[in-house]
Specification:
Elements (H helix, E strand, L loop, with lengths): L1 H14 L8 H21 L5
């Protein structure tokens, strides 16, 4: 019955009872910041014209 023990462990892990996850606002804000930084770097060093 190893499969049932593994299933129970994965179900507990999926619930996230072991730790607090990152805030979705923090994740989205960080992603937005990185994308804006990449956009700024791309436009800053694009000196073709």
């Amino acid at each position: 019955m190893i499969a049932s023990g593994t299933t129970a462990h994965l179900a507990t892990l999926a619930e996230g009872s072991g730790h607090d996850s990152l805030s979705p606002y923090l994740t989205g804000g960080g992603a937005l910041f990185v994308l804006l930084l990449l956009l700024w770097v791309t436009t800053r060093f694009n000196r073709d014209r």
